[in-house]
Amino acid sequence: MYSHHFEKFKDHVNTNLPKDILPLDEFLQLRTDVLANTPGIEPEIPGAEPDDGPPGVVPPPGVTASPDKISTKPKSVVPPFVDCMSQPDAETLAIRDKLISTRRAIYSTTEAEVSKRWTYEEGIKRPYFHVKPLERVQLKNWKEYLDFEMEQGSHERMVVLFERCMIACALYEDFWLKYAKYLESHSVEGARNVYRRACTIHLPRKPNIHLNWAAFEEQQGNLDGARDILKTLEEAVPGLAMVTLRRVSLERRTGNLVNAERIFQEAVEHAKDTNTASFFSLKLARFLAKTKADTEGAKTVLKEAIEKDKENAKLYLQLLDLEFQQGVRPDEDRVLQCFDLAMASQLSADAKLTFSQRKVEFLEDFGSNVERLMTVYEEHQKLVKTHSGGKKRAQEGAGDDLVPAEKKHKLEENGTMSMPPPMTMPPPAPAPNSLPPPDPNAAPPPSYNYNWSTGYNQPSVSQVLELIVPLYSGTWKVAASIF
Fold this sequence. Notes:
Elements: H1 3-14, H2 18-21, H3 24-37, H4 89-123, H5 136-152, H6 155-168, H7 173-184, H8 188-202, H9 207-219, H10 223-236, H11 241-253, H12 257-269, H13 274-290, H14 295-308, H15 313-325, H16 332-343, H17 349-366, H18 370-400, H19 405-414, H20 461-482
Helix pairs in contact: 1-4, 3-4, 5-6, 7-8, 8-9, 9-10, 10-11, 11-12, 12-13, 13-14, 14-15, 15-16, 16-17, 17-18
């Protein structure tokens, strides 16, 4: 794939001395390895005379060295640095071959790694940033490329690839989240920096990545930072219930129940519509009853919400549930008051029928007065009949809408649908070749003298058709007149 680069490298090595293209340390190490592993190559030192004496310190001329000053250490294995031009060609060629062989191993490894990634690199058609959305094929290619690089396990490659991906996919929070989650296990500051870049520069109005950033800061113990992130998101994108609930959860986990209740109350007061106010009222009532053990406060919240939203069955069910779960044995009178409140409300007929059924079941399980049970049961039966009759009338009304317009027009004109006159059958034709009546005075016929041509006086095919054709023609006329 990149063979031409390696060929140029070999030409460069063969046309230059190794000492001119390599650092000094690498050149000396390479030369030492060549001399140690290649037999027949001996280094030559220019101007040096042969020394037949033992190794040691060489005294100045005219001075004899004392035996105690003679060094017994072996000479250095590394030969002194000399100019390669004065060395035999064999040593230079060996150094060049050694250098090329070491670089060939690096080249082979690099080529194999590039081949693994070449398919993904070819799939990147837009490596730059643009406000237009990327194609699905491009997004899939980036995701698969990142997953592949994660399997390889190289942190440096992952960071480089993520940074390349964030240029083209800067407006996609999934990739920012993937980058931040990856860095959380490697560098806390790196993950925080990724969250900050995404939320403050590229995605200031995306709630999901803000919520993840707040959770990350809470995990790191930065509670004030988490509060600021959620507050900033709520100001940038007001009206998101998930942000309000996350703020309440943060305060509840930290033990600040006063702030949690205050956030709920503000959400109820500043709700844009009745449904949103009822939703937060339900959440606030549940919070007061389960977290603060303030059942009376929860009932007050629900009753105030019912006054504003009288057609919300969930409010009545929550109020009933609070009364039912209070204490070991529920208070019969207070539970029945909740049932009566729901039955007297503006709920739909189906919802009232459900509450009536549950009222009967409650008295069956916990009631103390059989007369009250029978009264409630009779009221429930009346409600069932009324509800069934209303459903039947509704179905009949819906059935009238299915009658064709032409049929309705005929009914409106005549009052009733005109039917064609009754169909008359033609008299049967006499059977041909019929036998004459038997003569009592005539002699009996011979035994088994049967005339096979008579066929038991059966009618012919033409006679059958004369009977059937008028029958079917009359039927089609009736059908045509109806429809």
